[in-house]
Amino acid sequence: MQQDPSPALPGRAVPRPPSMLRLAMASLAGTAIEFYDFFVYGTAAALVLGPLFFPSFSPLAGTLAAFGTFGVGFLARPLGSVLFGHIGDRYGRRPVLLASLLLTGLATVAVGCVPTYATIGVAAPLLLLVLRFLQGLGLGGEWGGAVLLTAEHAPEQRRGLWASFPQVGPPLGFLLANGMTLTLSATLTDAQFTSWGWRVPFWAAGVLALAGLWLRRSVEETPQFRALAETGRRSDAPLTEVVRGHWRLVLLTGGALSAGYAVFYSVTTWSLAYATEHLRVDRTVMLACIMAAVALKGTLTPVVAVLGDRYGRRPLCLIGSAMCLVWMFPFVALLRTADPLLMTLGCLGGLLGMVTMFGVVGAYVPELYAPRIRCTGAAVGYNLGGVLGGALTPIAATALAAGSGPPWGVALYLSGIALLSLVCFALLPETNPAVVRARAGAGTGKGAAEATAPA
């Protein structure tokens, strides 16, 4: 594992260490807000965007088209990781935190203002497409900046714990988005919700973005980047360096993380559409089932991170991907019952496997890359996983579940992605510094190999 450049250089004043809790909360708040923006679109796509923006399509085709615009956000995320990764590696992690949040917030508010197909015709879905792309562009830079802010400030022995705070942001953002949608759905008539109620969560994103910018206004640059800047070791072309020297690592990172994305969006987005359209489950009931499972996932994230600090990142990722592999058929079977408790159990089982992986990736993925290319490499790998696992999953699952029988094809599809993740994690090295040193000291062949693996 490559060593970070020391922030303590001769003749240079060492700044007072910032409050890790303050930094962690600023990262958590920002990721929660940005993922709120991203998730609120997914919920709207599952519930209302099809008939409002693709009215000439059949119900199934309309849902597929709405999920198509949903997938565009994932395709934009790697581009965002390239753009903001370059900024983060050349100019600092801090500018990424502010610019990505501003872009995502503005695009989300604009989605809530787009007229429907009945008002402006084909321009309506085209505007949705553009704004969803901008959402994804901003979110592509958010994760890398937020995770590096905490991971590069954190003490080595607690890096996993502090880097897990941004990982709590996605479930918190999901709960905010769906909690608001659930409240509106329960208090408004169907006509009111379809007419204007679905827009309210998008408008609320503007207030949340302003709050996030206020929280992040005074965050400090990380010691690793300051050391790179002062020693002149910043990469001039981080993307070129990543592609030429670390392409295999990026592909393995993306493949490893794909199952987490696939499971999460099958649980939170596809199952919502499937349960409400095919099983005739009330949308408020299904939203409540999903939210209960996501809440527990968010609660367990720091617990898993502490285990990663103690026992290593890679073993938990292997266990999590294996859990996803064996649970996808039970997930579909429990969803088919249309019983709220059993559907919640099905969703929870999938998310337990997902959080066992993703609870440690806030530390794991940045540790795989050297500091000079870390913002680009980590963000591109992370968002490549989003394309592989998140962009196509709602579309593929909706198509596979089109018939009247149990959607076993969905379970098989998700199991295949989980198997891909399991193989990729098996090919990646351990990065926890304490575990790597212990294995190297034990003198085993595998430990020595992992101790010299590039970070």
Report how far apart the termini are: 4 Å
- In angstroms, what is the radius of gyration? 21 Å
Helix content: over 70%
Q: How many strand elements?
A: 0
Low-confidence stretches: 1-15, 445-455
Class from helix and strand fractions? mainly alpha
Shape: globular
Strand count, sense and barrel status of the largest sheet are: none
DSSP summary: helix tally: 21
Our estimate of the beta-strand percent is under 5%
The string of secondary-structure elements, in order, is: HHHHHHHHHHHHHHHHHHHHH
| Average pLDDT | 85
Any key phrases for this structure?
455 residues, mainly alpha, disordered N terminus, disordered C terminus
Structure overview:
Helix 1 packs parallel to helix 4 (93-111), helix 3 packs across helix 6 and helix 3 packs antiparallel against helix 17 (374-391). The protein has 21 helices and no strands. Helix content is 79%, strand content 0%. The longest helix has 40 residues, at 238-277.
